[in-house]
Write a structure and sequence with these properties.
This is Lipoprotein. The chain is mostly helical. The chain is about 60% helix and about 5% strand. Helix 11 packs antiparallel against helix 14. The longest helix has 25 residues.
């Protein structure tokens, strides 16, 4: 099927079938411990009493949510439950709700993709393309239907079964991402960020913001660099900083994968991405991005860039030729592998 290749593309930019990892945001013991501690607060203080009531509400929410998960509630039910209750949750529980929502969306993603390619629904691909070309000419990013405004497209889908298909997909928490002329469901990090991040911990909020930005501005498209080199440099440093600060974060493997895509593009400048000129020499923009990295604190990113500049110096400023790209490619690969070891990338 077409979507097989698409899944590979999504994996490369972590949108988003990367394995979740086995950590959890908070174990039941951690939540119980929080509740027990708060329950001991003097209830005569009105402000403290309100906090205690909120924690008790959180306890009820977690119990109901776990029951929904254990009975294999459908994703639409789970998303609706979170939408209606997350504002009453403490930050630990809010993280737990969002974490499990993301995991459910990832687990079901391949099934959701199948729904768009059955004999009864495959025509939705052409319909979506025509609608976007005709009615959303000013849409900045026509390859993605995401966020709270994505449902506007429903009023243009006349066929009832296809309208229901897209509506249900949106209500579950998916966006529609276009690749090679077809639309595929992906986790809608933009709407998760817009609607839920204000209730979560600082770490989860930062993660949702990163993933939302990545979904809207992917690092690569079909292995070609899709952002400018300065943005790439800043993104690599930002991702590495997140990884160092949050080594036990539940989606840390996703962040490591995101980072390695950035580092790969950063340490393998080439003529196809425009980071080398036609003479296989570093462009001014690439050098400026490197210098910005070198001016910062010590990091894996900085160390990797230094190695590339050492290669440049040893080879008289030239990174190969049309006839010989292997020498630099092999060196670049070794820099990546060294970074993987340092970050413990699986």
């Amino acid at each position: 099927m077409k979507y097989t290749k698409y899944v590979a593309i999504i994996l490369s930019v972590t949108l988003i079938l990367t394995a979740c990892g086995s950590n959890t945001i908070a174990s039941n013991k951690e939540i119980d411990k929080t509740e027990t501690t708060v329950d001991k607060v003097n209830s005569s203080d009105s402000e403290t009493a309100n906090n205690e009531l909120k924690i008790k509400d959180s306890q009820t929410i977690k119990k109901e949510f776990d029951e929904l998960l254990n009975k294999n509630g459908n994703i639409k039910e789970i998303n609706l439950y979170i939408r209606e209750n997350i504002e009453f949750a403490d930050k630990v529980l809010a993280d737990y709700l969002v974490e499990n929502m993301i995991k459910k969306l990832e687990e079901n993603q391949s099934n959701e993709i199948d729904n768009f390619f059955s004999d009864d629904t495959v025509e939705i691909q052409n319909i979506l393309s025509k609608i976007i070309d005709s009615n959303f000419k000013d849409l900045e990013k026509k390859y993605i239907l995401s966020g709270n405004k994505k449902s506007e497209i429903l009023k243009y889908i006349d066929k009832a079964n296809l309208n229901t298909l897209v509506k249900n997909t949106f209500q579950k928490g998916y966006a529609l991402y276009s690749s090679e002329g077809s639309y595929y469901p992906v986790v809608d990090y933009q709407i998760l960020n817009e609607d839920y991040s204000k209730y979560t911990s600082k770490t989860m909020k930062e993660y949702l913001n990163i993933m939302s930005d990545l979904m809207l501005n992917t690092t690569t498209v079909e292995e070609y660099l899709a952002i400018d080199i300065n943005t790439l440099a800043r993104r690599a440093l930002s991702y590495e900083n997140f990884i160092i600060k949050n080594p036990n974060f539940v989606f840390i493997d996703v962040m490591k994968s995101n980072y390695m895509v950035c580092l790969w593009k950063l340490v393998s400048p080439n003529i196809f991405d425009g980071t080398l000129d036609n003479d296989f020499k570093m462009t001014d923009a690439t050098r400026k991005a490197y210098e910005e990295i070198l001016s910062g604190n010590d990091s894996i990113t900085k160390e990797s860039v230094q190695k590339i500049l050492e290669f440049e110096k040893a080879n008289n400023g030239v990174f190969g030729s049309y006839k010989d790209m292997d020498k630099f490619m092999n060196f670049s690969n070794s820099v990546e592998e060294d970074a993987k070891l340092k970050l413990n990338v699986k």
